[in-house]
Amino acid sequence: MSNEGLLVIISAPSGVGKTSLCKEVLKFFPDLRHSVSYTTRAPRPGEKDGLDYQFVSEEKFQEMIDGGMFAEWAEIHGNRYGTAANALKEYLRSGNEVILDLDGQGARQIREEFPNSIYVYILPPSWKELEKRLRSRRTDSNEDIKRRLENAKEELQYAEHYDYIVINDAFNVAVSTLRSIIVAEKCRRKRVLKQVEALFNLSHAG
Ligand code: 5GP
Predict the structure, then answer these.
(1) Cβ–Cβ contacts within 10 Å for residue 5, how many?
(2) Could you report the per-residue pLDDT of 63-113, keeping only the tens digit for each?
(3) Is 57 in contact with 40 (CB distance < 8 Å)?
(4) Domain-located, residue 2
(5) Range of the domain at 181
(6) What is the mean pLDDT of the chain?
(7) What is the pTM of this model?
């Protein structure tokens, strides 16, 4: 496993600020890629196809499920979301680092196939703040906000299964915490062993 890339799974209830956090953290790691998911959800204003998501029809998504093309998929807030298997496996096999933004169901499915992945859960500082953030986003309808808040309560139960928990109160602190987690994980012996062997001409480092 030492030459397999690092896979970081990030989950959070909707509205916590996970997308902004991931975008900021990605700037620090030139080799870290954000895997673009497929979704049947309609694009929000400003979202770009192929960049934020691959926006597809229900029919296309179903075809992909039937063709076994997803590493995981889930139905969330009435829409479907999924991670394409081939691109992810190929990317990791060539030693690259990938960040996946998944809900709790998707994370559980991925853990079975990629047991070495790292699980980070992002929490809001309070329920009140979560509601405030969801409302200030101004991209979801009232009904959608209500549904996302209700789902957040269920979704939070997954947090206990994660390796790390980050509370996104002050944004910059959360960014540096997440960044530190990734740095530490990149330094794990099993991930740098090959490099150490090559650098110091060792046959059995560690
Ligand atoms: P949003 O509609 O706010 O962009 O995302 C809603 C939820 O879908 C978030 O919790 C996000 O983590 C999750 N999500 C996004 N992409 C995927 C995916 O490919 N698979 C799964 N299981 N969840 C996803």
Answers:
(1) 18
(2) 999 999 999 999 988 899 999 999 899 888 888 899 999 999 999 999 888
(3) yes
(4) no
(5) 7-205
(6) 91
(7) 0.89
d(CA 44, CA 132): 18
The CA–CA distances, whole Å, from 197 to 1, 2, 187, 201 equal 15, 12, 14, 5
CA distances from 180 to 34, 53, 199 (A): 18, 27, 25
**Residue 2 pLDDT > 80, yes or no?**
no
| Residues at CB less than 6 angstroms from ligand 1 | 11, 14, 37, 41, 72, 74, 76, 81-83, 101-103, 105-106
Tokens 């997308």 locate to 19
Length, in residues, of the chain = 206
The answer to whether 122 and 103 have CB atoms below 8 angstroms apart is no
* 144/150 Cα distance (integer angstroms): 10
* CA of 17 relative to ligand 1 center, distance in Å: 13
**Nearest to residue 181, comparing CAs of 5, 29, 33, 36?**
29
**pLDDT on residue 3:** 55
Q: What is the CATH number of the domain that holds 132?
A: 3.40.50.300
For ligand 1, mutation pick of 51, 102, 168 (most atoms within 8 Å of CB):
102
